Amino acid sequence: MPGRFTVTAPDGHTLLDDRTEVTLERSTPNGGGCPPVVWQAALRAVPGEGLIPYRPLPRRT
Questions:
Q1: Contact 34, 28 (CB under 8 A)
Q2: How far apart are CA 6 and CA 53, in angstroms?
Q3: Which residues are CB-contacts of 1 (< 8 A; sequence separation ≥ 6)?
Q4: Which is it for the CA torsion 29, 60, 47, 11, positive or negative?
Q5: Are 51 and 45 in contact (CB under 8 A)?
Q6: pLDDT 10s digit of each residue in the chain, 61 long?
Q7: Which DSSP category does 39 fall into?
Q8: Whole-structure pTM over 0.70, yes or no?
Q9: How many CB atoms lie within 10 A of CB 5?
Protein backbone atom coordinates (compact mmCIF):
# COMPACT_ATOMS: atom_id res chain seq x y z
CA MET A 1 0.00 0.00 0.00
CA PRO A 2 1.41 3.45 -0.79
CA GLY A 3 2.48 5.69 2.09
CA ARG A 4 3.38 9.37 2.08
CA PHE A 5 5.10 11.51 4.71
CA THR A 6 5.17 15.29 4.49
CA VAL A 7 6.75 17.76 6.91
CA THR A 8 5.69 21.38 6.55
CA ALA A 9 7.27 24.38 8.32
CA PRO A 10 5.02 26.93 10.07
CA ASP A 11 5.50 29.28 7.09
CA GLY A 12 4.09 26.62 4.73
CA HIS A 13 7.45 25.61 3.21
CA THR A 14 7.71 21.85 2.59
CA LEU A 15 10.72 20.44 4.41
CA LEU A 16 10.22 16.80 3.43
CA ASP A 17 7.86 15.05 1.02
CA ASP A 18 8.59 11.38 0.44
CA ARG A 19 6.60 8.32 -0.63
CA THR A 20 7.15 4.58 -0.30
CA GLU A 21 5.30 1.28 -0.22
CA VAL A 22 4.32 -0.05 3.19
CA THR A 23 3.04 -3.41 4.38
CA LEU A 24 0.27 -3.27 6.96
CA GLU A 25 0.62 -5.67 9.88
CA ARG A 26 -2.26 -7.08 11.93
CA SER A 27 -2.18 -6.09 15.59
CA THR A 28 -4.36 -6.93 18.59
CA PRO A 29 -3.33 -4.35 21.21
CA ASN A 30 -5.59 -5.86 23.92
CA GLY A 31 -4.55 -9.46 23.33
CA GLY A 32 -5.51 -12.08 20.75
CA GLY A 33 -9.03 -12.70 22.07
CA CYS A 34 -10.06 -9.06 22.59
CA PRO A 35 -11.09 -6.36 20.15
CA PRO A 36 -10.07 -4.27 18.41
CA VAL A 37 -8.04 -5.73 15.57
CA VAL A 38 -6.03 -2.96 13.90
CA TRP A 39 -3.78 -2.81 10.86
CA GLN A 40 -0.73 -0.60 11.13
CA ALA A 41 2.59 0.30 9.57
CA ALA A 42 5.42 2.48 10.81
CA LEU A 43 8.11 4.37 8.93
CA ARG A 44 11.19 6.29 9.97
CA ALA A 45 12.39 9.38 8.05
CA VAL A 46 16.18 9.13 7.76
CA PRO A 47 18.12 12.07 6.25
CA GLY A 48 19.82 10.98 3.04
CA GLU A 49 17.88 7.69 2.92
CA GLY A 50 14.25 8.79 2.92
CA LEU A 51 11.49 6.66 4.40
CA ILE A 52 12.47 3.25 5.73
CA PRO A 53 10.44 0.64 7.66
CA TYR A 54 10.50 1.29 11.39
CA ARG A 55 11.31 -1.58 13.68
CA PRO A 56 11.55 -0.92 17.42
CA LEU A 57 14.80 -1.81 19.12
CA PRO A 58 14.63 -5.00 21.21
CA ARG A 59 13.82 -4.41 24.87
CA ARG A 60 16.46 -5.23 27.41
CA THR A 61 15.36 -7.43 30.30
A1: yes
A2: 16
A3: 21, 22, 23, 24, 41
A4: positive
A5: yes
A6: 898 889 899 999 998 899 999 899 899 989 888 999 999 988 888 878 888 888 766 666 6
A7: E
A8: no
A9: 14
Taking the CA of residue 38 as centre, how many other CA atoms within 13 Å lie in the half-sphere pointing to its CB? 7
Q: How far apart are CA 49 and CA 43, in angstroms?
A: 12
Residue 34 is given by DSSP the state: S
Separation of alpha carbons 49 and 40, rounded Å: 22
The CA distance from 4 to 19, in Å, is 4
Q: Are 37 and 27 in contact (CB under 8 A)?
A: yes
CA distance 40 to 18: 19
Question: CB of 3 within 8 A of CB of 14?
Answer: no
